[in-house]
Amino acid sequence: MSNPYLDLVAAHDTLLQTPGPLFSSIDGLNLPPNPELAADAPVVMIFAPHPDDECIIGALPLRLGREAGFRVVNIAVTQGSNLKRQPERWVELKNACDLLGWELRETIPGGLMSVGTKTRDADPTAWAEKVDVIAKLIEEYKPTVCVFPHDNDYHSAHIGTHYLVVDALAKVGHRCVVGLSEFWRQMEKPNALIATGNTDTADLIAALACHVGEVERNPYHLRLPGWMADNVRRGAEVCGGQGAAAPTFSFGTIYKVAQFDGRAIVDTEQKYTIAIDGDIEAVLA
Asked: What is the pLDDT of residue 34?
């Protein structure tokens, strides 16, 4: 008897080796209309270290927008370190946000540079200028939820973005829910596993495929479902509790949901596993 799982592995391999379509334009894509927002719709802000991070960490904002009527605003903290690629990356980012129905704002023309703890520690004047930029955006939008990387997400710009947003929130004394995200390095104590159904997951992948230059270099849009499936495996225990029954949904994204009290992040003992048909607003409680 041959190994019955060989076909399963071969099917996965075929999917990962088969280039999917990339979208240099979203014209002609048959996308569902975005829901109309109330004039006073609450705001969820994504602070993306690079163009493409908004798609990878976008499950919570996407569901808040589609299911709870939130206005989703993506802040492009940087536009990458390659100056020649920045105009092209901005177009790719605009396509991705348009596909998802999100607003897009830049920090400054071309995006902030040197967003890292080295700048924070060694050049407080330059860091304060960056904090002021983010603080003004927070004052403008008054977000109910802010989504940004955790403080140990490996990449210097991810870690820098964490401290940039925390410093800006503290500067204006803004109270909100924070959803800390992970990608390059896992968090020690996440508490929220947010499911996405097939349509939402496919839309995040399609938006990621708008970042043509990046996924041509590394086709991580094809690997996103595998990462999200593994999030469900891990999230069952670290978010649901040791020995908890595994969720039945296939795809999910892990966050640490906490409160920002106007001065600092305040952790909670609450754990959240939000299924596809679950109440996404439960994370706001």
From this structure: 80
Sign of CA dihedral 209, 239, 267, 279: positive
Q: Left, alpha or beta for 275 (phi > 0: left; psi -120 to 50: alpha)?
A: beta
* DSSP tag of 49: S
β-partners of residue 259 are: 177, 266
Q: What average pLDDT score do residues 127-139 get?
A: 98
In the prediction, which pLDDT does 130 show? 98
Instruction: Please name which of 202, 192, 263 lies closest in space to residue 232, comparing C-alpha atoms.
Output: 192
Residue among 199, 161, 211 at smallest CA distance from 183: 161
Position 164 scores a pLDDT of 98
Reply yes or no on whether the pLDDT at 256 is more than 90. Answer: yes
Q: Which residues of 86-111 are buried (b: 16+ CB within 10 A; e: fewer)?
A: bebbbebbbbbbbbbbbebebbeeeb
CA distance 245 to 8: 24
Cβ atoms of residues 144 and 44 within 8 Å: yes
Q: DSSP characters for 180-219?
A: EE-SSS--SS--EEEE--HHHHHHHHHHHTT-HHHHHHS-
- The answer to whether residues 162 and 185 touch, using CB atoms and an 8 Å cutoff, is no
Percentage of the chain lying above the pLDDT 70 cut:
100
- Nearest in space to 167 (alpha carbons), one of 191, 151, 154, 181: 151
- Residue in this structure with the two tokens 């999100």, named with its chain if needed: 102
- What is the model's pLDDT at position 73? 98
Residue 281 pLDDT > 90, yes or no? yes
SS3 content of the chain, % helix, strand, coil (to 5): 45, 15, 40
pTM metric for this prediction? 0.96
Instruction: At 104, list the tokens.
Output: 């897009």
256: enclosing H helix or E strand: strand 252-261
